[in-house]
Backbone:
């Protein structure tokens, strides 16, 4: 699974930037489409060519923590555990779209990959509540910051070239009349099946699914059956109206159009990221 640049991920930033960059002057590429991989649960868009995978992110994270640990260990600390990776999971940029997953898991994400090994070192990880550890951690983080940045990818935000283009593409896509039409058909499908669509742009569920979150008996058989029922309806309506494919195609069209003219910046960013990834792998190979 890659680190995604999607309308959902950048909904807030996209709304802020819409007036600045979504002026309607960009013509979407009619040949660009989203690729839906049902087996892996992935929705693949053009800018994903410039995104790093979750596995590569994990490598970089482990390298950064290993660099930090090299400074902490002489001070008597083992460092902190790597964050648990979600692994590869079903992507839902426009809500549930795989009825077969919904029938088995409800709203829970379907894991599609292995989590990294989080085995602690001898003596265990450092106590993050220890004031001495925290003071040494802050000192070390400042000391090795440049080294950690050398094994890191670009931030998944408007600070990266791909992130900035993704924000613009998401804003333009959400303002496209075809987007409104597709969303309206999906919402009507929910209504026809007894559900009430959530209000507001960037929401891809029902009021009934939100109400489930407030139930005190979420783990009861009755609540679990209701979760499956609602999830299947939401995913089935997505499939019946072809929502994920249609919205993915719209967003893909704008992404492809925006990529043209920015290939040099994107390619340079990708080269830097790939170089940093190799540096992360080399550091781990020599310091594990």
Residues:
């Amino acid at each position: 699974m890659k680190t995604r640049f999607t309308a959902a991920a950048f909904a807030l930033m996209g709304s802020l930037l819409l007036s600045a960059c979504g002026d309607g002057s960009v013509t979407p590429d009619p040949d660009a489409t989203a690729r839906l991989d049902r087996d892996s649960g992935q929705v693949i868009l053009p800018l994903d060519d410039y995104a790093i995978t979750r596995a590569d992110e994990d490598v970089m994270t482990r390298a950064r923590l290993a660099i930090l640990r090299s400074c902490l260990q002489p001070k008597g600390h083992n460092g902190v555990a790597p964050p648990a990776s979600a692994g590869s999971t079903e992507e839902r940029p426009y809500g549930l779209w795989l009825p077969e997953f919904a029938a088995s898991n409800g709203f829970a994400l379907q894991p599609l990959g292995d989590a990294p090994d989080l085995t602690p070192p001898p003596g265990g990880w450092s106590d993050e509540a220890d004031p001495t550890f925290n003071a040494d951690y802050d000192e070390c983080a400042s000391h090795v910051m440049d080294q950690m940045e050398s094994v890191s990818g670009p931030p998944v935000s408007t600070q990266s070239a791909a992130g900035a283009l993704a924000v613009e593409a998401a804003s333009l896509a959400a303002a496209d009349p075809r987007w409104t039409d597709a969303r309206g058909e999906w919402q009507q499908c929910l209504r026809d099946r007894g559900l009430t669509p959530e209000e507001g742009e960037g929401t891809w569920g029902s009021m009934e699914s939100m109400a489930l979150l407030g139930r005190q008996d979420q783990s009861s058989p009755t609540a679990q059956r209701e979760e499956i029922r609602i999830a299947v309806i939401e995913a089935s309506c997505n499939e019946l109206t072809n929502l994920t494919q249609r919205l993915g195609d719209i967003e893909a069209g704008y992404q492809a159009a925006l990529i043209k003219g920015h290939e040099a910046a994107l390619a340079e960013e990708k080269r830097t990221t790939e170089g940093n990834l190799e540096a992360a792998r080399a550091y781990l190979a020599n310091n594990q």
